[in-house]
Design goal:
The protein contains four helices and 13 strands. The chain has helices at residues 2-78, 127-191, 199-226, 229-262; strands spanning 81-83, 87-96, 102-107, 114-115, 120-124, 265-267, 272-275, 284-285, 292-306, 318-323, 330-338, 364-373, 387-392. Strands 1, 2, 4, 7, 9, 10, 11, 12 and 13 form a nine-stranded antiparallel beta sheet that branches. Strands 6-5-3-8 form a four-stranded antiparallel beta sheet, with no helix packed on it. A hairpin with a 6-residue loop joins strand 10 (318-323) and strand 11 (330-338). Helix 2 (127-191) packs antiparallel against helix 3 and helix 2 (127-191) packs antiparallel against helix 4.
Length: 394
């Protein structure tokens, strides 16, 4: 009985402990649930923060990876190329200036018009030049007529002067013959006795001898006068040559007058577009005065690369060209040549590095790039617009 009572008395005790033991986990679970429920708002607030932090970290990491990858890709894609933004379209602009002075009477072109070689551009009043041409033609005709007369005189001189010498020589021979006869007559008269002749006959013979002597002297003078035949012919020939020079001068003046007259019509020396026209009808123009320019259709690119970019650049390397004015236009070309001198070397006042304080500056060297294809006739390339060349150097 005592044992049963003890057991009965223990039962409630053991049962309470068991109940308490069974209730303890439940209490802890409930406590945890209550504390969890209490912390749920705070956890709900912290959860988005963690997510945002995680996202931020992932975004920064992805951005860094993208930047590193993009930089590596850019370096790989551009290591074989050299480019510059200091590049412009270039070409030939021919300055047009009159070669004669006068008033402009007609203007045959308009601004930005395309013209062909030989096409009239400006017409200058030609009346004075027509007068000069007519005067030059008259002067030439007179010089030619005088030349013809002198040539006739030279031909006559070639015949007359030798004939005159022969005539003088013949007259001298006749005078000498007469002198010999008169001298013989005089000696005969002087050798006769006084009874066989008279003083009158002696005087007559003496006078005849003296007259014959005078004729011989005159004949000798005429011969001496007629003897320089070659000199007189040379003089006539020299006059012809001098007149030929006058004719040539007159021909030159005529050619100059014709040239001046032709220059009153200013024509295009080559194909191209009219630019910088600063002349109007009625203006008085003078030789050398710039009145307009013609831009040639041939266009190339002048790119000013830094000297540090020229190590691998060579003529013939391919070039892709972007045009700022026409983003949709993509040109292709090649390196034509590299100028043997930096841009600063050919300025009006090149630097003198040997004087004053020297500061090293990276120089730029002009590179000529020829455009091979990609031009659009509907999109003209004005000279001096910006382009972006990209040269493949490897």
């Amino acid at each position: 009985m005592l044992d049963r009572q003890v057991d009965q008395t223990k039962k409630p005790v053991d049962g309470g402990a068991t109940v308490r033991a069974e209730q303890a986990p439940q209490a802890e679970e409930e406590t945890r649930l209550e504390s969890r429920e209490a912390l749920e708002p705070q956890l709900a607030k912290e959860r988005p923060r963690r997510r945002r932090g995680t996202r931020r970290f992932l975004l920064v990491a992805m951005l860094i990876l993208a930047m590193v990858g993009g930089g590596y890709y850019y370096w790989v894609a551009n290591r074989d190329y050299e480019s510059t933004d200091d590049a412009y379209t270039d070409g030939r602009a021919v300055l047009i200036a009159p070669e004669v002075s006068g008033k402009v009477v007609a203007l045959k072109v308009a601004d930005n018009q395309f013209v062909k070689a030989g096409q009239p551009l400006v017409i200058i009043d030609d009346r004075q030049y027509v007068i000069d041409l007519n005067q030059a033609e008259g002067t030439l005709a007179a010089a030619r007529a005088q030349l013809a007369a002198l040539q006739y005189a030279a031909d006559v001189a070639h015949k007359n002067y030798p004939a005159a010498l022969q005539q003088a020589q013949a007259q001298l021979a006749s005078a000498k013959a007469s002198l010999a006869k008169a001298e013989a007559d005089l000696k005969r008269q002087q050798s006769l006795p006084r009874q066989a002749t008279t003083q009158q006959e002696v005087d007559a013979a003496t006078a005849a001898w003296r007259q014959a002597q005078a004729q011989v002297d005159q004949g000798e003078a005429q011969v001496r006068q007629a003897e320089p035949v070659e000199q007189r012919i040379g003089q006539a020939t020299a006059q012809v040559d001098d007149q030929k020079g006058q004719v040539e001068q007159a021909q030159a003046r005529l050619a100059q007058a014709q040239l001046n007259l032709s220059r009153t019509v200013i024509v295009a020396p080559q194909d191209g577009w009219i630019t910088k026209r600063n002349v109007e009808v009625g203006n008085y123009v003078t030789p050398g005065q710039q009145i307009l320019s013609i831009v040639s259709p041939e266009v190339w690119v002048t790119a000013n690369f830094k000297e540090t970019q020229l190590a691998n650049m060579r003529p013939g390397q391919p070039v892709t060209i972007g045009v700022d004015a026409y983003p949709e236009l993509h040109l292709e070309g090649h390196v034509d040549s590299i100028q043997l001198g930096s841009g600063s070397k050919f300025t009006a006042f090149p630097p003198e590095n040997a004087t004053g304080n020297f500061v090293k500056i990276v120089q730029r060297v002009p590179v000529k790039i020829t455009i091979d294809k990609g031009l659009d006739p509907q999109l003209p390339l004005p000279l001096g617009i910006s382009v972006d060349p990209r040269v493949k150097v490897r």
